[in-house]
Amino acid sequence: MKQNIYDNPSFFNGYQAMRDNQTGLHQFVEQPAILSLLPDVTGATALDLGCGAGGLCRKLIELGSACVVGVDISRNMLALAQKDAPAGIEFRHMAMEDFTAQDNTFDLVVSSLALHYLADLETLFRRIHGWLKTPGTFLFSMEHPAFTCAQGIHPDCIEDETGAPLYWPFDCYSDEGRRESHWFVDGVVRYHHTLSTILNSLLRSSLQISAVLEPVATPAHEQKQPPLKTERRRPTLLVVKAVKL
User: Fold this and answer.
1) DSSP-assigned letter for residue 119
2) Contact between residue 199 and residue 240 where contact means Cβ atoms under 8 Å apart
């Protein structure tokens, strides 16, 4: 069953408050990592799977993409995305698993913090290979397997008497599949995939891995947002660039 947690009002309000504060991993860690691996997108046709509020779609147009298709299952997120969207972006309301396109359509496929909601990565990777032109680039971020493995099984972290984190549980790593946890609301479902599953699924889909990042904030960003220093203690995010040659 495809999850649309972002249209849950309680979840959406909590998520928006987090994004509006601009203090999280998205702004200071994930997006800089994604942008550091982008190819030259001048004149490119791009697809953003799980586009959310459309920030990456806008950035691709700003960097010179000719057109961008943004796909998301959430009406709430797409309503934000469509506000003042520049020319050249087409938003489609659907689950990323349901998106279809002709082969050799896109120069670039991106996905920002969405793939950990999918049970079956390899089927999507194979379809992305077909949609990409040759050469073409697939660039994505997702929650790191070290971060997803114990979700919903153990507390997020073990704290000392002052509330400071002592350590984070690492358990059930090889037991892939559904994880259900609390994030703003109960019952948020993610899927844990081992690192080898993620990377080998790309290779079996004839996508050549060209870069892998486990990003952290820069010292300057950590100075602005000291809680980000904690993220150096275990990997939270995985960013991968793969190419169709």
Assistant:
1) S
2) yes
Q: How far is CA 170 from CA 11, 63, 120, 201, 214, in A?
A: 26, 39, 23, 23, 17
Contact by Cβ (8 Å): 195, 238: yes
Q: Which of the four CATH numbers 3.30.565.10, 3.10.450.50, 2.40.128.110, 3.40.50.150 does domain 23-148+192-244 have?
A: 3.40.50.150
d(CA 209, CA 222) in angstroms, rounded, equals: 29
Element (H, E) at 237: strand 237-244
User: What values do phi and psi take at 45, rounded to 5?
Assistant: -105, 125
Q: Average model confidence (pLDDT) for the chain?
A: 92
Q: What type of residue sits at position 59?
A: K
Q: For residue 23, what pLDDT is reported?
A: 57
All structural domains of the chain with their residue ranges = 23-148+192-244
Query: Does the pLDDT at position 183 exceed 90?
Result: no
Q: Cα angle at 35 between 18 and 2, to 5 degrees?
A: 55
Count Cβ neighbours within 10 Å for each residue of 3-23 and write b for 16 or more, e otherwise.
ebbbebeebbeebeeebeeee
Q: Please tell me the predicted confidence (pLDDT) of residue 15.
A: 73
Identify the burial level of 162 via C-beta atoms within 10 angstroms of its C-beta, where 0-12 means exposed, 13-18 middle and 19 or more buried: exposed
Burial (CB count within 10 angstroms: exposed 0-12, middle 13-18, buried 19+), residue 232: exposed
- Tell me the pLDDT band of 11, cut-offs 50, 70 and 90: confident
